Amino acid sequence: MSEYLHKSHNVTVLMYHMVFPAKYRKVIFDGEVDGELKAVFLYIEKRYQMNFLEIGSDKDHVHFLIQSVPTYSVTKIVTIIKSISAREVFRRCPQVKKQIWGGELWTDGYYASTVSKHGNEEVISKYVKEQGSEYQKIYSNYQLSLF
């Protein structure tokens, strides 16, 4: 479950839904590879300031729900996850390297989307738009009473 990350000058809840397809969309994520991937992600979680809230793999791609700190850009998160997981999966499951020619586990592309703990885009948009509206009503009523 996500939690507020408290740093010296900020409090954040930054979550991302990411999808990484396997190179050439090869069907490589079986039970063994899936288990090794999850172990690698736990290692990444301990070493870097990331929290894998959910991990789900299909036969040819993997979905993540990741929480991270604002000092990591989306590109940095992707680079860390892809490079370490590829190296470790090839080391722990050599049969995967034989299935994928070229020595790359992941495609170059990825999908990333922000996820909110407090509502969807419509709810947040309305909340932001209405900020200060109570103040504006009081201020305009005050101005009218002066004249």
Automatic annotation (TrEMBL):
Domain of life: Bacteria
SUPFAM superfamilies xrefs: Transposase IS200-like (SSF143422)
InterPro entries: Transposase_17 (IPR002686), Transposase_17_sf (IPR036515)
A Pfam family per the record: Y1_Tnp
Transposase IS200-like domain boundaries: 11-131
Transmembrane segments: none
Gene Ontology biological process: DNA transposition
UniProt-recorded Gene Ontology molecular function terms: DNA binding; transposase activity
Name of the molecule in the record: IS200/IS605 family transposase
Taxonomic lineage from the root: Bacteria, Pseudomonadati, Chlorobiota, Chlorobiia, Chlorobiales
Recorded name of the encoding gene: tnpA
